[in-house]
From TrEMBL:
Domain Amidase positions: 95-511
InterPro entries named among the record's database cross-references: Amidase, Amidase_dom, AS_sf
Molecular-function GO terms, alphabetical: catalytic activity
Entry protein name: Amidase domain-containing protein
The organism's taxonomic lineage, starting at the top: Eukaryota, Fungi, Dikarya, Ascomycota, Pezizomycotina
SUPFAM superfamilies: Amidase signature (AS) enzymes
Length: 533
């Protein structure tokens, strides 16, 4: 406390009634006899804050001499693909000849910091801001020899699993114009699926890697919570933050995971991860048998029986799952009714923490805080709020309401999340992996910016099988397993994703299952059937 009483500056702006004004919205009052003392204390903390604000920030240094940013630009219409899949184009060359990702081309979801490259976050609530540091995953990709070709469009503030909400424009599904590419890693999924880049690094807080992978027809991995440092990536809720790769094959996903995983000395979420460079997921897949003898696969019944799961999707994923038996695995049905609680637990967590993040009030983690971004976007203005997509407005409104009416609820979701995690872990003592549809339907048609309910409708229900594993932290892989017809047109065939989930820190098992399945079967030749047998 002594630091607060050195002196009060003459220029201090705190007024006598400011302390009371801060308490007015809470219905609290200051005893008049105490008012002067609280004014003095508030003025002192203001001076303390001014002193801290004047200190230099401490950001990781981006090596732009070794890794210069070439020709940073917003893409022209001629450069754009699949509508508006690119956010910014540039080139950063990896220099490690013979590195594990040498020659690989990469895009980054436009929430991943790249020093000197404006970041849009899919929004126009505020002008773009320009990071002064590189995210950990960016540095690791470059050190492994990969070339980064740009940032790819993400959905508006990452608050959607559709692909029409970005203020920069709609992203089209690579298989059919007019249909969703999924979100919020929308642009990257389209680029990878089309072969325009080899790898996209996405962020997943409810399905934002796996949903677009499922709808577009590529591989997407949400690793175990903390496996990949989230340093330098815009957060929604630290409890649900995950970063991971989207690629065209499980082997490429494994090779990328080897590069980007491991504690970086900054992000406390990755404290439990192995030493960087110590994993060998890619090499293990290349050396493993092409059989799954002794492997136990659980068909999570609740993942198939939800009323939102389209029968064509259900039957195709069941058909794909049964093929594990031909590869030597044992297959059994597994029941976990608590699976159905996942979306509700995730919703409460994301609304409360999401609102706190939007308001600059999320605290309590050791890691890299992107202070330039906070200064750029805060405080909110009504003009900015009016430009926000309805999903962002809804997060703020819901979160403020929940914090006021249910003050203990966020803590309860954290506790119940541990309960769910323990329930799944008990299953993984018996089964190597659990399988279910990634998304309950194939890609829906794009929605329109209309009244909130209509605007949000295309995303509703897409995360019934994905969000729960953000809550529990389990690794989950989506691989394409065939095509099923669009809801609106039986002639439009769209990809179906199968989600393979493993125990905590057991990525090797889900990668093995996905790799062996895809090396034996050509998913592009598989289509739905109404035959359930």
């Amino acid at each position: 406390m002594s630091v607060l009483f050195t002196s009060i500056s003459e220029s201090n702006p705190v007024k006598l009634d400011d302390a009371q004004k801060l308490l007015d919205p809470l219905g609290l009052t200051i005893d008049p006899a105490e008012a002067q003392d609280f004014h003095t204390l508030l003025a002192a903390v203001h001076d303390c804050a001014e002193g801290v604000a004047a200190l230099p920030d401490y950001q990781p240094v981006s090596d732009q001499t070794k890794y210069p940013r070439e020709n940073v630009r917003r893409p022209s219409e001629e450069e754009q693909v699949f509508g508006h899949a690119w956010a910014h184009r540039f080139l950063i060359r990896g220099t490690a000849q013979g590195g594990p990702l040498a020659g690989k081309s990469v895009s980054l979801k436009d929430v991943i910091a790249v020093a000197g490259v404006p970041q849009l976050l899919g929004s126009d609530i505020i002008p773009s801001w320009t990071p002064n540091t590189d995210a950990t995953v960016v540095t690791r990709l470059l050190e492994a020899g990969a070339d980064i070709h740009g940032t790819s469009t993400c959905e508006n503030m990452c608050h959607s699993t559709s692909s029409y909400t970005s203020a920069q424009g709609t992203v089209e599904n690579p298989h059919a114009v007019g249909y969703s590419a999924g979100g919020s890693t929308s642009g990257g999924a389209a680029l990878v699926t089309a072969g325009l880049v080899d790898i996209t690094i996405g962020g997943d807080q409810g399905g934002s890697i796996r949903v677009p992978a499922s709808l577009c027809g590529c591989v997407g991995l949400k690793p175990t919570h903390g496996r990949v440092p989230f340093t330098g990536i815009a957060s929604g809720d630290a409890m649900n933050d995950h970063a991971g790769p989207l690629t065209r094959t499980t082997l490429e996903t494994a090779q990328c995971l080897d590069v980007i995983s491991g504690y970086d000395g900054i992000d406390d979420k990755s404290l439990g991860s192995q030493k960087p460079g110590s994993t060998s997921f890619g090499a293990t897949l290349q050396q493993t048998s092409d059989r799954l003898d002794g492997f136990k696969v659980g068909i999570l019944v609740e993942g198939f029986e939800h009323d939102k799961v389209d029968p064509n999707v259900k039957n195709l994923v069941l058909t794909a799952t049964r093929k594990f038996k031909d590869l030597g695995a044992t297959i059994e049905e597994v029941f976990l009714p608590d699976h159905y609680h996942g979306p509700a637990i995730w919703t409460i967590q994301q609304r409360i923490a999401g609102a706190q993040t939007l308001l600059g009030q999320n605290t309590g983690r050791r890691g890299l805080y992107m202070t330039d971004m906070e200064r750029a976007r805060l405080p909110w203005t009504d003009d900015g709020f009016q430009r926000a997509f309805p999903s962002t407005k809804n997060v703020m409104i819901n979160g403020l309401y929940l914090m006021k009416q249910f003050p203990d609820l966020y803590g309860k979701t954290a506790n119940f999340g541990r309960y769910l995690s323990d329930k799944y872990e008990a299953l993984f003592e018996k089964y190597d992996v659990l399988v279910m549809p990634t998304t309950p339907v194939v890609a829906p048609k794009h929605g329109k910016r209309e009244l909130p309910l209509e605007s949000l409708k295309p995303s509703m229900g897409l995360t019934i099988n994905t969000a729960v594993f953000n809550v529990t932290g389990h690794p989950a892989l989506s691989i394409p397993v065939g095509f099923a017809p669009a809801k609106e047109d039986n002639q439009v065939m769209l990809p179906v994703g199968m989600q393979i989930v493993g125990g905590l820190w057991q990525e090797e098992k889900i990668l093995r299952a996905g790799h062996i399945w895809e090396t034996h079967y050509d998913w592009k030749k598989m289509q739905y059937t109404t035959d359930k047998n």
